[in-house]
Amino acid sequence: MLKNANGGSASIFPPVIMERAEYQRMRADEVASLKDEIKSSLTESSQMAADGCDLYAVTLEHNACVAMRRLIEMGAL
Fold first, then answer.
1. Is 56 or 11 the better-scoring residue by pLDDT?
2. Could you tell me if residue 7 is left (phi over 0), alpha (psi between -120 and 50 degrees) or otherwise beta?
3. Is 31 exposed, middle or buried (0-12, 13-18, 19+ CB in 10 A)?
4. What's the average model confidence in pLDDT over 30-46?
5. How many CA atoms lie within 13 A of 52 on its CB side?
6. H-assigned helices in the chain
């Protein structure tokens, strides 16, 4: 691995490109996490509604809506 003058790892890419790639990876991970949260909340909500726990089911549906809103605000949905 290449080292720069500060002893850190050097790259053939300029720092801006690396920062953009890192940001895109971080954003993709966040989008995937939110989508998984939505799926699990809605699945659990259905199970709770079937068990008669309607208040808890509504809370889970609300959590899924909040996650969907975050995706919309991020422009990922």
1. 56
2. left
3. middle
4. 95
5. 0
6. 15-50, 54-74
**Residues 68, 70, 71: CA angle, nearest 5 degrees:** 65
Residue 21: partners with Cβ closer than 8 Å, 6 or more residues away: 13
> At CB < 8 A and 24+ separation, what contacts does 17-26 make?
none
Tell me what the pLDDT averaged over the chain comes to: 84
Q: Residue 45 in contact with residue 64, Cβ under 8 Å?
A: yes
Per-residue pLDDT at 20: 83
Q: How many CA atoms lie within 13 A of 73 on its CB side?
A: 8
* Phi and psi torsions of 25, nearest 5°: -65, -45
pLDDT band at 1 (very low <50, low <70, confident <90, very high): very low
